[in-house]
Amino acid sequence: MLGGTLVTKQSGAAGKPVNTVLLAKKMDLAKEFYFAIFMDRASGGPLIIACSEGGTSIEDLAESSPEKIIKVPVNITIGPTDEQIETVVNGLGVSGDKESAGDQIRALYNLFVDKDCTMVEVNPLAEDTDGNLIAADAKIGFDDNAEFRHKDIFDQRDHTQEDPREVAAAKWDLNYIGLDGNIGCMVNGAGLAMSTMDIISLNGGSPANFLDVGGGAKVEQIKAAFEIITSDPAVKAIWSTSLVAL
């Protein structure tokens, strides 16, 4: 496995290089659940998602058991209420100590907020044969804008697991996300960039990227932006939109 490439639904077609392997003690799990917290645009805050079935992706769960998935939007100014915690614990179908399970759910929420996370996904969240709740596997995403508050976390970043174009863009303070199309985009402003991509798509084209150079980009940043776009062999044309206001 080491030195190979792992391809999954979440890695993209190119996959990710395997540089390290985590060895963990074998667990005797009696039941597996799905638990996650995401930032939700619709509710304007954290959203807890839980399911009484786990061990597989949420996409598969949504297809196979949509009725078992519960969603609990949380007011970020006050955090989850006791009633909301109870709803999540009951929705999971925990058979052990429900109060202890509730404490763990709240601890995961506190982690999400305290560490400026964009995602905390525990899959599976499981019960062992003694009824103890265990975070058997987890994935955590952190808000890049909060890097200055969590240097200890961001110092562990493995750039080999990221799109090299996105890594290069970050060095120039450019907001770049690679896509699968063939029309490169360079725009000043995130909203204008999204609108530009929509126009391309509505007219039968396919954007190769999202790239916001910001409102005060310097010559060096613009040059770097073009170099990043043209480094993608799929790009056949470039669309640049700039809004200038005095």
From TrEMBL:
Keyword Metal-binding attached: yes
Residue intervals of the ATP-grasp fold succinyl-CoA synthetase-type domain: 1-126
Superkingdom classification of source: Eukaryota
Name of the protein: Succinate-CoA ligase, beta subunit
Pfam families registered for this protein in UniProt: ATP-grasp_2, Ligase_CoA
Keywords for this protein: Ligase, Magnesium, Metal-binding, Nucleotide-binding
Pathway in which the depicted protein is active: Carbohydrate metabolism; tricarboxylic acid cycle; succinate from succinyl-CoA (ligase route): step 1/1
A Gene Ontology cellular-component term: succinate-CoA ligase complex
Enzyme class: ligase
GO biological process: succinyl-CoA metabolic process; tricarboxylic acid cycle
UniProt domain ATP-citrate synthase/succinyl-CoA ligase C-terminal: residue ranges: 186-238
Keyword Cell inner membrane: no
Obligatory cofactor(s): Mg(2+)
Sample GO molecular function, one term: succinate-CoA ligase (GDP-forming) activity
UniProt EC number: 6.2.1.4
